[in-house]
Task: structure prediction
Amino acid sequence: MLLKKQVRGSMDKLNDQTLLASYFKAIELKLDKDFILILEEELKRRGLPFITKTDRSN
Result:
């Protein structure tokens, strides 16, 4: 739980473009689903577009 809070706090340091690029790269590399969910939560918080799980092929 503490790690999640640390990751979320670090997200504030990323600009929108870097956050989106990180999100798409995480999906491409099939990184941990929890990490991708944290990125999605931040994208939602910022009102940025992203691919939902149902939109992904894998």
Summary: The chain has a mean pLDDT of 83. The two ends are 26 Å apart (CA to CA). The chain is about 65% helix and 0% strand.
